[in-house]
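Input (structure):
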């Protein structure tokens, strides 16, 4: 009976983790789409622009009236906190990721837009950027839409590498610990409410 209870507990724990992973993928996709809508919706001085803070996704002040790209800054389903790591280029947010260092249950069979998560060792390696392939782009080809090679990501660079350590700070006043190759800065924002 004890063995049966142990097996049942493991099955339940694995099922709960898989459910959290599905929730993380869903929330990450919502962040990715919100960043895309923000980037594509308005021009500033004739150029597209990424959000400076996660709060910019809640209310876009670049246009008259109220325009929302995200209805709330979601709680991370893995950590249970409304704190996210962010990927910045030139001080602007191009992606988000979980701050969890846990190993994922899911390591393969991702949707096409999430194929870069394949084989990753921790949830913080699941980086939801716009465009989807931003961190995989060759620096010689240009990293961001409409920008030259200087802003591209170094191949294989991701959160948790030695080039830049995540830090905790308010979304309005965060500053990076270091600047990795290609101008990408990995940090974490915690919204102040």
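Output (sequence):
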């Amino acid at each position: 009976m004890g063995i049966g209870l142990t097996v049942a507990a493991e099955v339940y724990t694995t099922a709960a983790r898989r459910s959290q992973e599905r929730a993380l993928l869903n929330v990450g996709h919502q962040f990715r789409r919100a960043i895309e809508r923000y980037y594509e919706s308005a021009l500033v001085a004739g150029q597209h622009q990424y959000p400076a803070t996660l709060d910019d996704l809640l209310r876009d002040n670049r246009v008259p009236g109220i325009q929302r790209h995200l209805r709330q800054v979601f709680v991370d389903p893995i950590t249970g906190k409304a704190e996210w790591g962010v990927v910045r280029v030139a001080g602007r947010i191009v992606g988000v990721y979980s701050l969890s260092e846990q190993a994922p249950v899911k390591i393969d069979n991702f949707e096409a837009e999430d194929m870069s998560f394949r084989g990753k060792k921790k949830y913080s390696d699941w980086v939801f950027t716009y465009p989807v392939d931003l961190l995989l782009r060759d620096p010689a080809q240009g990293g961001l839409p409409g920008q030259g090679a200087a802003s591209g990501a170094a191949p294989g660079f991701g959160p948790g590498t030695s080039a830049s350590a995540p830090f905790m700070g308010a979304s309005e006043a965060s500053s990076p610990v270091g600047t990795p190759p290609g101008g990408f800065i990995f940090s974490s924002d915690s919204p102040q409410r």
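Notes: The chain has one domain: 2-189. The first helix runs from residue 2 to 41.
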